[in-house]
Amino acid sequence: MNELVVISGKGGTGKTSVLASFAALAKNHVLADCDVDAADLHLVVEPTIRSRREFRAGHTAIINAEDCRGCGWCLARCRFDAVKWKNTGTGIEYYIDPLACEGCGVCVDSCPAGAISFPEEVAGEWYISDTRHGPMVHARLGIAAENSGKLVSLVREQARALAEEQKRDLILVDGPPGIGCPVIASITGASAVLIVTEPTLSGEHDLRRVAELARHFRIRPFVCINKWDLNPEMADKIEAGAVELGVEPVGRIRYDTAVTRAQVEGKSLVEFSKNSAAEDVRKLWEKVKSLIGRNKSE
Amino acid sequence: MKIVVTASKPSLDSPVDARFGRAPYFIAVDTETGEWEAHDNKQNLNAAQGAGIQAAETVSRLGAEAVITGHCGPKAYRTLTAAGIGIAVGAEGTVAEAVEAYKNGKLTPADSPDVEGHWA
Amino acid sequence: MIIAVASGKGGTGKTTVAVNLAAVMPGPATYIDCDVEEPNGHIFLKPDIERSHTVAIPTPSVDAEKCTGCGRCAEVCRYNALACVRGKVLVFPELCHGCGGCALACPVKAITETDRPVGVVESGRSGAIGFVQGRLNVGMAMSPPVIRAAKTEAPPDGTVIIDAPPGTSCPVIAALNGSDYVILVTEPTPFGLHDLKLAVETVRELGVPFGIVINRSDVGDARVTQYCHREKIPILLEIPDDRRVAEAYSRGEMAVDAVPEWREQFGRLAQLIADVAAEPVEESG
To answer: Chain-centre distance of CA A32, in angstroms?
Structure first.
């Protein structure tokens, strides 16, 4: 079973759009939307949710005002500025800012009055759905939640389990932007990683960082340049530089207003149009398909 | 000797669970007497991170001298090795079959983790 | 005044809005790049960096001689960054959040904390604009400590413009916390609208007043505009798709330099925010 993960470093380069077209072109696959923070893939594959589960991760501290003696030990020990206080007129009331609390439990353990409770947090939801292309695992992380890496790992594990169960040989993963824990969680152990970038200085800069991340985890990624004709010189420069970074250029997609028009209609590009950028995406898919599994980390 | 096998169900005919950190059960088996006991690992299924580390601690507390599993990641590997516990990966079939394979020297002792960590 | 520029979706134009706003802001202005995973502001502002400092997380080291192998530290750690097996304590620094709980819990004081570098904060100037940038070391998992460190470089006066990371999870909260006003940048597409709604929910959770800038406003459809009207969210500026701006961006040039009418547009945005921020808060969701 192979797993292709599409990431970008910089956000907005078109990875979800590219992945959505791959979903339409590939056969016998499972989709996994690991951009749990701002998941968009469902907008163009229209899943029907079959099961919905809570995602629990970490804890959050809550001060019980009645039991609190106002000693301030929690305030002294919290390293995340999560303990706040207000003057209620009758005295000082301490409380925890849930957006700042990192769930470390130091305040809970420090409180001499045992006044701080530490419930588990429901940090989001994850779903198993059907789409016109096959099964899909996706998720929604709660606002301000942490542990997005854990939710990403969960989505991937569930996608793998589904693929084994239904004898599907490919998992297509829509990855998150950036280089932090959700991205790390989406690429470890993948068979192939495709970076989608754009022909701009920002795209080039961010490609370097995400390529370094991939190298750190001993993965040799591919790269494709989206909207390359907006700056052909920059596109050439990026491809030349990519090779030096240990990243293999595998294709280019031209700028095409059909991309947005397809999205507005809830379709992937290759379902909406036949030529121009859609043709580029088809060629890209053929190339990537032939390379999956041959570039496993050594 | 006492060995621990990762399992999906609490019995000797359970399939071996390939994951070390998040396997639902650890089956501890005495290879000489054949006596065995199932231990629940459910609390670890929900761990945000470091599930492999916690599993290694559990297995160490059970007094295991070796672990039989499918895959073992870098953090679990490091913890098991520090505890002096041998690790055999690539086990398949049922728990009973895996124990036999181990006794007959058919399972590979790992000298490094065989999968990446999940993140970090 | 602290203005944060954020979005749900990546690539909508946060950095474009943030750097160009900083360039036309009346009075002293400082730009702080809090997209520490992929900071791009420097490409456009081209700052002279005057100083930099390492951001570190205090991580435990165990004195093996004092350690009794009681395992209390491993029990207490909520992140499983410590393991105690057969009398030995192992530290997994990559999982550590730097909370200090283990050092506090150790009954024989065998744990000291040493700094583990996770990123860097650089400061300097870009002409008249103050410049600060946080950068997460590649391979490190957690952004918030670097984001918080970058924000501590904000001067007490003048306008501070924070360029936030994309999304709605903990790094974004770390960047937006303490802001006086948030500009959400979006695009009029289904992905843009979907992620905008998540971003709006986030900003409402924080209780900070906010407004929208719609980038590439003539591409896509009208659903974003309709959503803003329904929700009574002010649309501060609409930027039509302009090839000159896209090309300037691809070359690392400021839109307000490359295309003169943009200087005027952003100038008006700056004034609008100054006016709105001075009003009593009525929309806070």
So the answer is: 10
